[in-house]
């Protein structure tokens, strides 16, 4: 059992899965906080949490909490991350970690000032497969990296009242699913893109429904990203080099990839387990806290948010 005390802020659907991961790694959950004591008690009793709180502010005042897992809608992330940091708590927050780059920069600055760790619950940064694939690419197995392609289509039910389609609640495909696709691309690109081209089709509420995004960096590597939230597309990522390409299906929690070489050879790469995706996240966050270091993955989160800011600026869609 790990003695790092985790608290859950916002016990919704994804928090159910994450709670199981905390218990699997740490043995128990210390605290649960919700907007009502009834909701907190129902969740806390299910996972045998030691402390139950009927308000977020009350929970954040508990000095025994080491790290807060935030699973509210992303339009609230900035508020609750800042409150957690001001109460001297480390933070592990669902994606998208914020809705714009200014918010994230402010969070990073406060975390550094208070010597606290903030990390994004982006599975791509924590799945063992991706570390292995990066090592394969760095060894030159597929030659010089040239192109990354990512597609992600999630057909949301037509409902103009749903938060996915609400401008006020920072809806739209980019912040909902695009954060996965951009994180995949940025993870493999050698440097941050400095050229961004994009086009968008808006939903009737004004949020981005589908889009195409082209990125290019100073290393002449490119990424092409296709997103839609009103049509189903495969969650597929491809990393292409001069000597072959790597294909990853269902990439957000992938444990398998296929390398296809120029001569026709095919190689399967398998490591980790999809079912343990959130267990890897808990383990990594525990390690970040103990090592007092999370600069590498936070740099990726900052870069992705900067790209999204540039994309939305071109679309003239503001998220604030």
Task: List strands and helices in order, with pairings.
Elements: E1 6-9, H1 13-26, E2 31-33, H2 37-46, E3 51-53, H3 56-60, E4 67-70, H4 77-86, E5 90-93, H5 101-113, E6 118-120, H6 128-138, E7 145-153, H7 173-188, E8 195-202, E9 208-216, E10 222-228, E11 233-241, E12 244-249, E13 256-261, E14 266-270, H8 277-291, H9 295-315
Parallel strand pairs: 1-2, 1-4, 2-3, 4-5, 5-6, 7-10
Antiparallel strand pairs: 7-11, 8-9, 9-10, 11-12, 12-13, 13-14
Outline:
The protein has 320 residues and is of the alpha/beta class.
Would you kindly provide a written description of the structure presented here, covering whatever features stand out?
- This protein has 320 residues and is of the alpha/beta class.
- It contains 9 helices and 14 strands.
- The chain has helices spanning 13-26, 37-46, 56-60, 77-86, 101-113, 128-138, 173-188, 277-291, 295-315, and strands spanning 6-9, 31-33, 51-53, 67-70, 90-93, 118-120, 145-153, 195-202, 208-216, 222-228, 233-241, 244-249, 256-261, 266-270.
- An 8-stranded mixed sheet has the order 8-9-10-7-11-12-13-14, covered by helices on one side. The protein has a 6-stranded parallel sheet with strand order 3-2-1-4-5-6, with helices on both faces.
What is the strand content? 25-35%
Task: Indicate the structural class.
Answer: alpha/beta
Number of strands: 14
Mean pLDDT: 96
Give Rg in angstroms. 20 Å
Oligomeric status: single chain
Order of helices and strands: EHEHEHEHEHEHEHEEEEEEEHH
């Amino acid at each position: 059992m790990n003695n790092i005390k985790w608290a859950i802020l916002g016990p919704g659907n994804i928090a159910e899965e994450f709670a199981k991961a905390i218990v699997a790694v740490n043995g128990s959950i210390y605290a649960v906080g919700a907007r009502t004591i009834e909701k907190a008690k129902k969740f806390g009793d299910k996972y045998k949490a030691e402390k139950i709180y009927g308000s977020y502010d009350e929970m954040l005042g508990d000095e025994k909490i080491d790290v807060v897992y935030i699973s509210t809608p992303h339009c609230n992330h900035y508020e609750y991350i800042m409150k957690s940091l001001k109460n001297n708590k480390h933070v592990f927050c669902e994606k998208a970690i914020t809705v714009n780059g200014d918010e994230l920069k402010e969070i990073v600055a406060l975390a550094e000032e208070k010597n606290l760790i903030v990390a994004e619950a982006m599975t791509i940064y924590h799945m063992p497969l991706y570390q292995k694939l990066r090592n394969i690419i760095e060894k030159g197995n597929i030659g010089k990296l040239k192109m990354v392609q990512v597609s992600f289509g999630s057909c949301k039910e037509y409902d103009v009242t749903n938060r996915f389609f609400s401008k006020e609640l920072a809806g739209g495909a980019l912040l909902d699913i695009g954060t996965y696709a951009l994180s995949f691309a940025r993870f493999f690109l050698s440097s941050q893109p400095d050229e961004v081209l994009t086009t968008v089709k808006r939903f009737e509420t004004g949020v981005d429904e589908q889009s195409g995004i082209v990125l290019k960096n100073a290393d002449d590597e490119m990424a092409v990203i296709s997103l839609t939230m009103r049509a189903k597309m495969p969650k597929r990522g491809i990393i292409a080099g001069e000597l072959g390409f790597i294909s990853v299906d269902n990439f957000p929690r992938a444990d398998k990839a296929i390398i296809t070489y120029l001569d026709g050879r095919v190689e399967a790469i398998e490591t980790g387990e999809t079912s343990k995706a959130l267990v890897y996240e808990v383990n990594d966050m525990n390690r970040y806290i103990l090592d007092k270091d999370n600069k590498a993955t936070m740099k990726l989160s900052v870069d992705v948010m900067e790209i999204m800011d540039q994309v939305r600026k071109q679309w003239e869609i503001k998220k604030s």
